Every structure is written in C-alpha cells, then in structure tokens.
Amino acid sequence: MAPTDQNYAPPTRRLWRSATALVCALALFTLSGAACPQMVKQYKLPVAAAQARALTLDELALRINEHSAQVQSLSSTSVTLSGPQFPSLKANLALERPQRFRLVAEKTGLTGPELDLGSNDELFWFWVKRSEPPAIYFCRHDQFATSSARQVFPVEPQWLLEALGLLQINPAEVTYGPSPVGGSRQRLELTLSGAAGARRKVIVFDDSIGAVVEQHMYDESGALLASALLSEHERDEATGTMLPREIRIQWPPTRFEMKIELADLQVNQLAGDPAQLWAKPEYRGWANVDLADPRAQLPPPTFRARTPEPTIDTATADRRGLFGFFKR
From start to end of 107-173, where are the E strands? Predict the structure, then answer.
C-alpha cells in the first residue's frame, strides 16, 4: 500500500548507498516509556468497528501518548531486513529508551556479521563489513544537525524512533486535524522546528486498532523526506500496546526503501551485558570517522569487498561474536 501523503519513485541507487542508508536508518531506532516484561502474543487483534464520532485533538493525543509510554525497551532475535537494493539479512535487535540501540545483521550464520550499528546516550555509529575504504562512521547526537551525516540520511535521528509507532504528540504543535481519511483513520499535521530547520509531520492513526499506521516527514519547502508504513499489528497483553510486525520505510531523497519484519518480540525485557551492548565497537584495521568533522570523508556511493576480514577488538566484543550480545 502506498502512503497517502506522497508520490514515491522506485529506488535505483547502488548497493553501498543502500547499505549505508539502511545502517543509518536502523542505527538510530529508539523507544520511550516503561512497563512490565512480557512476550508479545502471537495472534492478530480482531479489527473493531469504526467509532461513531471522530476523536478530538486532546483525545487523540492522549491515546497516542499513553500507548507509547508503555514501552521501555524492545528486543528480538528474529528480525528480517529486506529491500530491492540489498539481499535479505537476518538480525538481532535491542532497543532501550531514550536513545540506546544495537542491531547486528548477517547474511548466513557462517559468514558472520555484515552490519553493526547502534546508538547510546552520546552518539550513534554504523559499520559495513564489506566497505572500501574500511571505516566505522559515528556522530554525536548533539552534532547531527550541523554535520555531514545529514548528507547520508535526510531526517533527524529523533524521527526514526517513531518508525515503530511509539511517539509523543504535543497538541500545541498540531496545525491541522484530526481529520478523517476513511474508515476509522484520522490524520494530524504538525509543524516542528529545530536546529535542522522547520519540518512538517503527518501522522495517520487507526482507531480500530488503536495505533499509528503511517508517518511522513516533509521539509520546509514541502518535499517529502521520509515515510514509515506500519502494519501487521499485534497486542502485548501485559502493556496493552499495539506493536507493528512489519515496517516499510521509504526515503525519497535517497531513493531508498526497506522492509523490517519483527518476530519473537520481547517488551520491556533485555538480555546481555549493557557495558558491551551499548558501547561503540572498535575494529582493528577500520578507521574511526567522525561525521561531525568537516574534514570527514563521506561513505562512497559504491563499495566492494576487502580483505582481510575484520578482527573485532575483544575489549568491546564478546569472543562468541557480536551475536553473543543477545544470548539469553
């Protein structure tokens, strides 16, 4: 299903640009809120009939905010990443509010990690195993708006936490809506300001399932920067939160698209050593490149495999491999 607020062209970029956009996008996913741990139930919630009247702004904001506040952390050892520009990857994912994130992806269990991306309270990073030149890229959160990282992906890191439908609405920022867009769906428009400039955000909420199903971000000229389409929602019994099991992300400025499929979700329950899980890794043979440095060389538009294979510094990585972070 295409977004209701965009005209999106099919992606055509080369594989390195795709991998870079994928890593940047995923490396910054974060959640917020708190509740008790519980596995998400493996069944689909029956769709309720549309309610008789539209929600008021205050009612809609309250529903979205209360929904988001239930989730403190999220993890899965069964994530699938796919898209027209890169092969399907299996991944392990861990998230913890407000900005902690770790994702390690591999093509097969024999080849080892292909991507390592993450975020802690100070900075975010991304690494692609087969990159040339070999580098691990990073940037402090408070320097993103003025850094060259904005040339790699078009939206602020804060927007990416909303890709799972977990967001907070300030009614004072709403400039239009709620307005009906068919069935039980309602649309909000918000105007945001920040160091990166003015932004217009569009949110579509489906009251029949009690969750956000679309999000779109535009720049001040009206150009679409990013979209997230959320589907296959399931309810976590402990928190009552509806979580999507499929997220489609589209970034028109980079002509990039990917699908994230989540399974075996653990809500508010993380495993692993936090000292390793949230630490930026070091790779012998891979240079550290700070994207906030004006002299930094950006990731190239293409990449090719290099040798030798990376040696992971055991000061920041378990001897079992990066996937060992997620073992329970």
Answer: 113-119, 123-128, 135-140
- Structure confidence at residue 111 (pLDDT): 67
Residue 12 or residue 241, greater confidence: 241
How many Cα atoms sit within 13 Å of 262 on the Cβ side? 26
Residue 82 has pLDDT above 50, yes or no: yes
Q: What is the rounded CA–CA span in Å between residue 263 and residue 276?
A: 24
Beta strand residue intervals within 184-223, DSSP E: 185-192, 199-206, 211-219
Q: What is the pTM of this model?
A: 0.74
Environment class of 292 (CB within 10 Å of its CB; exposed 0-12, middle 13-18, buried 19+) = middle
The Cβ-side half-sphere exposure at 202, using a 13 Å CA radius, reads 22
Q: Given 3-state DSSP classes, what are the helix, strand and coil percentages for the chain, each rounded to the nearest 5?
A: 20, 40, 45
Phi, psi values for residue 70, rounded to 5°: -80, -15
Tell me if 187 sits within 8 A of 181, measured CB to CB. yes
Cα dihedral across residues 140, 145, 148, 149: positive or negative: positive
Task: Give how far Cα 324 sits from Cα of 77, 104, 109, 120, Å.
Answer: 11, 10, 12, 19
Q: Where are the alpha helices (DSSP H) in the chain?
A: 15-27, 57-68, 157-160, 274-277
Q: Are 318 and 276 in contact (CB under 8 A)?
A: yes
- The average pLDDT across 157-165 equals 76
Three-state SS for 140?
Answer: strand
What region, left, alpha or beta, does residue 182 occupy, with left being phi > 0 and alpha being psi -120 to 50 degrees? left
